[in-house]
Specification:
The chain is an alpha/beta fold and 300 residues long. It contains ten helices and 14 strands. Helix 2 packs across helix 10 and helix 3 packs parallel to helix 4.
């Protein structure tokens, strides 16, 4: 009899566990309320899809992990491919949010409006210093924007022309779908062409890896990736050389300071708007710092 009672209790317990598990798949998911502090129910239960900037992938993934932890049952999918790829996906409606390390063009915004039926919302979620990186063994500490321009256009080909050792300069750059490529071309090259000998790599991590192994290498990318390389101090054509830091980026004194954006149409589903809203909370901005980028200031 006791054995039968124990067996009955085990069957009951197993049934209860399965019932709870089944209900869990239908539970309303939670996100942060308007003040970013208390959960509120979310009706829509589709995965949130985010795509775009390779510069922002490490930040997007970190935010997604924390968001899913805080909002049980929520699924956030983050993929790179470049800012241009993310914006194209936003235009054709295959993602909820586009990550971009550059501003969308007016033409891109108009295409979103035509295809998605509403205007685009631009939301900065972090600050970045676009770093110019050299190998740690390179004694050079600083360059002017004009010197960086001449290097990547191919006019300057030896480090001794800019105060470095006598050695050929090896160039590493991003692919043309990259927002970092576009930003660098506009703000450093004055929209000129890169030298044909630039070795094009996909992602800032690949550039950092290449420069870290090449004593004569130079590359560029988001400051959060700066591991085992040196980020040079950069001078504008009329000012002193400024090192990239939270203070110099927030104050705008570092010449290659920029914002990192999330884009979505105004009529985007609630899951997209809630995630963006949460990305601006103090909790999320603390994650920005942990990743290696810089949080928005109150004014921003």
């Amino acid at each position: 009899m006791r054995a039968m009672n124990r067996a009955a209790r085990m069957v009951f317990t197993l049934t209860l566990v399965l019932a709870v598990a089944a209900c869990g798949g239908r539970e309303s998911r939670s996100t942060f309320g308007t003040d970013g502090s208390h959960p509120a129910p979310v009706a829509d239960n589709k995965p949130l899809s985010i795509k775009g900037s390779d510069t922002m992938v490490i930040l997007g993934q970190r935010l997604a992990e924390e968001y899913m932890t805080a909002n049980r049952g929520t699924v956030v999918q983050v993929n790179g491919g470049g800012s241009g790829t993310g914006i194209a996906a936003l235009i054709n409606g295959t993602v909820d949010l586009a990550m971009s390390s550059r501003s969308m063009t007016d033409d891109e915004k108009e295409k979103v409006k035509q295809n998605r039926g509403s205007d685009v919302v631009e939301e900065p979620i972090a600050l970045d210093a676009l770093g110019v990186f050299v190998n740690s063994a390179n004694p050079l500490q600083q360059l002017t924007i004009a010197q960086v321009r001449d290097i990547f256009r191919g006019k300057t080909t030896n480090w001794n022309q800019v105060g470095g050792p006598t050695a050929p300069i090896v160039l590493y750059g991003r692919e043309s779908s990259s927002g970092t490529y576009d930003y660098f071309r506009e703000h450093v090259l004055d929209k000129g062409d890169f030298a044909p000998r630039v070795q094009t790599l996909q992602g800032t991590a690949a550039i950092i890896n290449a420069v870290g192994q090449d004593r004569n290498g130079i590359g560029y990318g988001g400051i959060a990736y700066a591991k085992n390389v040196r980020a040079l101090s950069i001078a504008s054509d009329s000012g002193p050389a400024i090192a990239p830091s939270e203070q110099t980026v927030a104050g705008g004194t570092y010449p290659l300071s920029r914002k990192l954006f999330l884009y979505y149409p105004q009529n985007a589903p609630e899951r997209a708007r809630k995630f963006v809203q949460w990305s601006l909370t103090p909790e999320a901005q603390a994650l920005v710092t942990q990743v290696g980028y810089f949080p928005l200031t109150k004014a921003q």
